[in-house]
Write a structure and sequence with these properties.
Aldehyde Dehydrogenase, Chain A, domain 1; Aldehyde Dehydrogenase, Chain A, domain 2; 2 domains; seven-stranded mixed sheet; six-stranded mixed sheet; 17 helices; 24 strands
Length: about 550
Amino acid sequence: MDIQPISVYEEKLQSSFPTKDSIPFEVRISGKKYEPLYLLDGKILKWDGNLEDVSSPICINENGQIKRTIIGQVPSMDEAAAMEGLNAAVRAWNNGRGEWPTMSVKERISAVEQFVARMRLVRDEVVKLMMWEIGKSLEDSYKEFDRTVDYIIKTIEALKEVDRNNSRFSLDDGVIAQVRRSPLGVCLSMGPFNYPLNETYTTLIPALIMGNTLVVKPPKFGVMLHQPLLEAFAECFPKGVVNFIYGTGSKIISPIMKSGLVDVLAFIGSSRVADVLKLQHPRPHRMRCILGLDAKNPALVMPDADLDLAVKECVTGSLSFNGQRCTGLKIMFVHKSIIDQFLTKLAEAIDKLPQGMPWEKGVKLTPLPEFDKAVRLKGYIDDAITKGAKVVNQGGGAFYETLFKPAIVYPIAPNADLYDVEQFGPVVPVCSYNDEQEFLDFVTNSNYGQQLSVFGNNPKIIARLIDQLTNQVSRININSQCQRGPDTLPFTGRKDSAEATLSISDALRCFSIRSLVAAQSNENSRDIIQNIVNGRHSNFLNTDFIL
């Protein structure tokens, strides 16, 4: 096969960017003007201060000039504005005596159901904005929206089940009691850019439905897509229960954390930023943290693995949404006896992946939203090359503006950045191994412990690996890629990868605490409790059964 110069691939990438006129009408957003709105204390307000441009990774070809296009503006808030959002949530919480935290579970469920109905009405608008803001394919953007709606519905059903289980009284050792789950307080919710709707709402919704009040800070990329939902938040929930703030994190989040008024931090991002945020709180022991952080999920491909299956799963695992997933496969260990076959098949599979604009049917590789991300990825590749690696696939590492051709880099030395740094992009590091201990040592010495994948067919060997690795990572995937779903399963991590557990039922527990009412089981106490329950005088102490 002739080796083509890298410039040929760069030219192909350059030609992938559209002109304005060539963009299909049905996916354009230029016809609607999005004003810099924000939600504060139940009101949708227009920001009249400094603004920040929202640029799309979908570059436009204007007379031969390829550049990112500005698709809107969002508020660039200052400390005072951010604190207004926090104070609104604090007032709505009102030391746990606010309307929302004291509302019955049934009433909170009804409010969230109304929100879901309103959410469905703006599906196309939210999806289109997601596609333009972060470059996610139109197909995958629709999947993210629908998965989020499904998650909310399942969360509602899970809470009904929790409440049904808590609707009874217990009698033990002369004490009559009822145990229920109650909210924690004011929650700061910060989601990631790669799943700006789904992963934001997988913390926002359980926190909300359990009775907490919220300050929501959307990610830098994926901020405008929440605009069509502000009206639903404003109309479905009491004022101040949900507040959206925008701006530079160091400017608006630091004062919020330093205030000490945040009871719950729900953050999905890097462990470095999470550490900074936690240290800024004056009483960190009083703050519940639900954190989804870094990962360097490895794959082990053993000699007896089904190579076609392993390659298929490794391609999907490493390059879904351009490798921009915390659950993605970030490095592969392949046995030396099959490494050449594996690399050949891997290169062939990756070269077949369609690359282009997000609205193109079947596209798998799309523009990268982060500024200068392609340059950083190329830096990782160059570092690996200086330490003995090569780019295996033709054109790997070529880029033009926001489009980057995936690169298979082999062999990765232990002192290369790609060995332990989470690249979070379309670079596929591969190592070869002779002894499984090399893989075990990598997992053990890694700072991260989210997931791993094992490809092989020997039950005894797989069983041995499972027993050695379940205390290092939180999920082992057999002959399949790393992933979060289904949402009913626990999603967490060890070491620097997570704090607390997210899944539909786990999240309800994370954003609440068990509280109980107890009394001596005597005639007077029983009469008082019976009167409260029969008269429906309390939203907490009751025996209502939600169907």
